[in-house]
Amino acid sequence: MHVFTVDSHSINNFNTFVPNFYYYNEVVKNEYLERGGKYITLGQYSVVSDGEHSAIPRNAEGGIRYLYGRNIREGIIDFDPISDDSYITEDAYNSFTRCHISEGDVLIAIYGTVGKSAVYRKAYIGLAGIPRHISNISLKSNSPISAEYLTAFFRSKYGKAQINSYMTGNIQQLFSLKSIREYSVPILPQKIMDEITGVEKEAVVCEIKAREKIDRAIELFYEGMKFDPRNINEEKVFTVSNAELFGSNIWSVSMYNNTFQKIEDNMEERTGISRLSELVDMMHGDEVGSDAYISYEDRNVEDIAFIRTSDIVNNEVDLYPDYYVSPENMDGVKQVTKKDDIIFTKDGKIGAVGMIVESDKVILSSGIEILRIKPEAMENGVSAQYIFTALLVPEVGYYGAKRRAVVASTIPHLRENRLGEIAIPIVEKQMIDKITILIKEAFDLKNKRKILLKSNENIIDNYFLEEA
Q: Which of 217, 293, 364, 375 has the least CB density, counted as fewest CB within 10 Å?
């Protein structure tokens, strides 16, 4: 517990009674200044704005990427094709110029889920626009800090605490543009800031290369299927017999969708199929209870990341999820993930797929199923990387899951035995091997990216917080 005093002039000036505001913006800041440290305020060296305030119609088919606030993660931008309508038309993008962003802008979520930031790079995101829930910070040419250093500081413990001290609102929190302009950033020795910038840039390159390899593996998978399921038109009207309906006892429209069945029939005819349960062993995620949650800001080095369905980001577990669990609260939780385990969401958001990398130390929630390849599947030439790619292809993984999910009250659920029925096409061995190599290389890059970003986090926290 920190004990400090604040004079009435400061309270009248800032017009807030939040203790953390004064602790981080006066006490800690002054201690750093007394040691010879320097700060800048963002408003001095940047142009701070937000995105389009009008409601632009979205779609899921294509066009210009249009971000939600939740797409801004710590150090990365995520697109969620399952939950999001991620696009606006080119005409809308050209008409609403306030949504435009520039290469190298720092994007930060300012409404709802506040404070997560990433540098915009067109190379892996593509042309994109932002709504008012996201702020873009464009650093001026005379800025003493880089965009990469700024986003690294935003996610450090001290940077995060300062963001929290500025937040207002009850149900929906807000980090206002005025507060961003007043936000103080410490100037570390140039050598350290250059090191942080270099590491951040290298991490982005890893993500770009990983995405390219995954996209190439997906195209090879389509090629190996010997037909393109994307060309099968969805049937909006179809019928099901009483016998089939009562025989399966599943009252879900998706279960009897002819489009899904046509895709599966084509796969069986052209490549042959295996059911997912024949290829992998399945294990449930676990729950530790919300009372055991530790926030991102309060976590310690030994705490374990708790991954919910919303924390599967760009086909991997989020490096910086919202919650962590202390080892002392792990009684009864026996879940242990391994490198190359596939993860698949089965509650709420159905069909998000990812893979565990070597540096991941996580506990998965009960809404996530762990899929571990069986030895006999490997002996028959199938790899975990190939199964991951198959499940990542919407016409296989997402359609297969959607077809078999049922809605309990308002939340979709996919039972383990139904998940195991998903059909996986088995393409030629040569194609499986090519896909396997690409996905292995992609996740080695993702693992490297995580190690790089964690090292940057430690540089800032160790230098600044331990000195304070």
A: 375
